[in-house]
Each structure stands twice: as structure tokens, then as C-alpha cells.
Design a protein that fits this description.
The complex is a heterodimer of chains A (113) and B (118). The two termini of chain A are 22 Å apart. Helices cover 0% and strands 52% of the residues of chain A. The radius of gyration of chain A is 14 Å and the shape is globular. Chain A is mainly beta. Chain A has no helices and ten strands. Chain B is mainly beta and 118 residues long. In chain B, 3% of the residues lie in helices and 51% in strands. In chain B, strands 2, 4, 5, 6, 9, 10 and 11 form a seven-stranded mixed β-sheet that branches. A four-stranded antiparallel β-sheet of chain B has the order 1-3-8-7, with no helix packed on it. In chain B, strand 7 and strand 8 form a beta hairpin. Chain B starts with a strand and ends with a strand. Classes of the chains: A mainly beta (113), B mainly beta (118). At the A-B interface, strand 3, strand 4, strand 8 and strand 9 of A face strand 4, strand 5, strand 9, helix 1 and strand 10 of B.
Chain lengths: 113, 118
């Protein structure tokens, strides 16, 4: 498959544990955020989003937390599975500026069976 | 429903040449965005097209251009290729553009075109 070959920070977790992936953003005007998952050979896949008027949003096994005070976003994955192994990116949009998103540098999640 | 398709998947060019990449969005989707992904710079926004109009542009030189056809298919062109243009070029489609809809819309990414410039 296609490998992006990024030299990324890596988070290693045991299968069944919870994972927390962090993202710092720089623009205080950012008002919409998305977490993406990218597996080898594939394009990024939408996981969950959150608007700036919220501080928490939950999906299936995933929770996104937004702290606007310190410009920090986190993705929590409950009961991490081997299929969760991938690179995770946060992306921000400013002023609902059409579909122009700024992506973070990414974190590689490695789930050990 | 078929996903976003990009052609070709792999491409090798030499410096100075030009290249055209193609993206077919999901049926019914009107917005197509292009991104460049490299190990050094990560994912960077190139431009977005919606209803055949460029709605937004990233910080790339004029050598990078694009267009969208009436069937929403999009092409991007890079002229006078440089070694630094080697990257994975990703296309994403969504039903509409986030600005016009006033609400969040999900973008679906294609698998990308791996461009290598020698």
C-alpha cells in the first residue's frame, strides 16, 4: 500500500486500553475542528467533529474535547483495538471558510495486541 | 455508493515537466478540495472548487492550478515541476461547501496520487 512516510510522534497502547491523542492549534479564530484517521495507503477518514461553541462531543468509542482557553484539542478512543492503528490528524477551519482546513502534523497510534 | 476516485495513483515525472491529476467526487457532491501531503509539511490545503468556481486557495505558487467541470469532476495541474513537488496529492469531496451550507459537512478523501519528481 501507499505509505506517507511521515516521521511522527508515536503513541503505543495496549489493546483494550484507552488512548488519548492531543493536538495544539495556533489560531484563536478557529471555530470548527475535525479529527481524521489515516491508514496506510488510504486518504484521511473523518472520525468526529466539534464546533467552537462546544467543549465536548461524543461518538462511538470516541470523544473529542476542546479547550479554547489553551487552544488544545484531544481525541479519546475507548477500548482501543488493533484496527485503530493509524495516523491521526486534527484539522481546523477558521470562520467556516468554505472547506479550507489547516491540518496538524499528526500522531501515529500503534496498538499492541 | 462509490467513493472518491483519483487517477492516476502513481506518477513519475522529471523536473520541468507538467502534470495533470484527476479527481472524481462521490456522486452528488459539488465541492472538491485538493491537498498536498509531504513528510516535511504534512497536509496542506491547495484549493477548493464548488460549482465550477474556485472558492478558496492555499499558499502555493501559481504553478499549481485547478479546475472543476460541470459534472463536479476536478483536475489539478502543476507546471514546471520541481523536486519539492514530490508528494501525495489528495482530493476530498463533500456534498456542499461548509461556508454555503452554514453547517458542518463531512469531507471524503480519495486514496491520493503519489507524484515523484526526478
Amino acid at each position: 500500500g501507499e505509505s506517507v512516510g511521515l516521521h511522527l510522534p508515536t503513541l503505543s497502547v495496549q489493546e483494550g486500553d484507552n488512548s488519548i491523542i492531543n493536538c495544539a492549534y495556533s489560531n484563536s479564530a478557529s471555530d470548527y475542528f475535525i479529527w481524521y484517521k489515516q491508514e496506510s495507503g488510504k486518504g484521511p477518514q473523518f472520525i468526529i467533529d466539534i464546533r467552537s461553541n462546544m467543549d465536548k462531543r461524543q461518538g462511538q468509542r470516541v470523544t473529542v474535547l476542546l479547550n479554547k482557553t489553551v487552544k488544545h484539542l484531544s481525541l479519546q478512543i475507548a477500548a482501543t483495538q488493533p484496527g485503530d492503528s493509524a495516523v491521526y490528524f486534527c484539522a481546523e477551519n477558521i470562520g467556516y471558510n468554505f472547506n479550507k482546513f489547516y491540518f496538524g502534523s499528526g500522531t501515529k497510534l500503534n496498538v499492541k495486541p | 455508493k462509490a467513493g472518491v476516485t483519483q487517477t492516476p495513483r502513481y506518477l513519475i515525472k522529471t523536473r520541468g515537466q507538467q502534470v495533470t491529476l484527476s479527481c472524481s467526487p462521490i456522486s452528488g457532491h459539488r465541492s472538491v478540495s485538493w491537498y498536498q501531503q509531504t513528510p516535511g509539511q504534512g497536509l496542506q490545503f491547495l484549493f477548493e472548487y464548488f460549482s465550477e468556481t474556485q472558492r478558496n486557495k492555499g499558499n502555493f505558487p501559481g504553478r499549481f492550478s485547478g479546475r472543476q467541470f460541470s459534472n463536479s469532476r476536478s483536475e489539478m495541474n502543476v507546471s514546471t515541476l520541481e523536486l519539492g513537488d514530490s508528494a501525495l496529492y489528495l482530493c476530498a469531496s463533500s456534498l456542499m461547501s461548509i461556508g454555503t451550507s452554514g453547517r458542518a459537512v463531512e469531507q471524503f478523501f480519495g486514496p491520493g496520487t503519489r507524484l515523484t519528481v526526478l
